[in-house]
Design a protein that fits this description.
Bound molecules: iron/sulfur cluster, FE2/S2 (inorganic) cluster
Largest sheet: 5 strands, mixed
Order of helices and strands: EEHEEHEEEHHHHHHH
Number of domains: 2
Number of strands: 7
CATH class of the largest domain: Mainly Alpha
Strand content: 5-15%
Radius of gyration: 20 Å
CATH topology of the largest domain: Fumarate Reductase Iron-sulfur Protein, Chain B, domain 2
């Protein structure tokens, strides 16, 4: 099939303003948008700039707006979106070049929630692992699936308004550790998510849940954190 691909272009070294370049190419219905971008880069315009690494939906590096929706280019098939495709960078982050955005505010917010295991109690004397029941493990299973692609955070109107807002991805990371029965950093993290730029800025738009390529129930996780700040009960 013939596909028309409109691609956002901006090179601050030569462009005063962004524009679209349009490419027409032959594609199979099972080609992914990433395949098309790589063909353009390899065969037509080597300057076309975008992030990618695994090409299999694991690393989270090729989030972009495809036909107006945040998606991973490596998981978006031509047959699912039709033969007229528009590709833009994700919103709310400074564009460095083409689809390449400055992820610094996103990762700064992520770091604020202490996204790592905290436990200062010595491991059991027998040297065994810290035990957890299947039910305790299931409590935070959904939020372990995050690949930090930023599809959620950059589809959130509160993040567009201020990149100081922690954003859904950072809150998902907070949820992952706060609800882990082995972790001892809940109080510290709850302090962070309760700050002005934390949970209070979530207005339950649901964009995050819709955007997540891992189908994480992002809004539900944020709701559980909100509930926890009210009840104080880690259940
Ligand atoms: Fe991406 Fe989903 Fe993680 Fe958000 S919660 S960063 S959309 S994987
Ligand atoms: Fe790794 Fe798409 S390139 S998720």
């Amino acid at each position: 099939m013939e596909v028309t691909l409109k691609v956002f272009r901006y090179n601050p070294e030569v462009d005063k303003k962004w524009h679209y370049d349009t490419y027409t190419l032959e594609a199979d219905p099972t080609d992914r948008v990433l395949d098309l971008l790589e063909r353009i880069k390899g065969e037509t315009d080597g300057a076309l700039t975008f992030r990618r690494s695994c090409a299999h939906g694991v690393c989270g590096s090729d989030a972009m707006r495809i036909n107006g929706v945040n998606r991973l280019a490596c998981k978006t098939l031509v047959k699912d979106i039709g033969n007229k495709i528009t590709v833009d960078p994700i919103l709310g982050l400074r564009v460095i070049k083409d689809m390449l955005v400055d992820m610094t505010p996103f990762f700064d917010n992520y770091k604020r929630v202490l996204p790592y295991f905290i436990n200062n109690t010595p491991t059991p004397a027998d040297g065994k692992e810290r035990h957890q029941t299947p039910e305790q493990r299931a409590r935070f299973d959904d939020t372990t699936k995050c690949i930090l692609c930023a599809c959620c955070t950059t589809s959130c109107p509160s993040f567009w308004a201020s990149d100081q807002y922690l954003g859904p991805a950072a809150l998902v990371a907070a949820h992952r550790f706060i609800f882990d029965s082995r972790d001892e950093g809940a109080a510290e993290r709850l302090e962070v998510v309760s700050e002005t730029d934390g949970l209070a800025r979530c207005h339950t738009a649901y964009n995050c849940t819709i955007a997540c390529p891992r189908e994480i129930q992002v809004t539900k996780a944020i709701g559980e954190l909100k509930m926890l700040t009210v009840t104080g009960k880690l259940e």
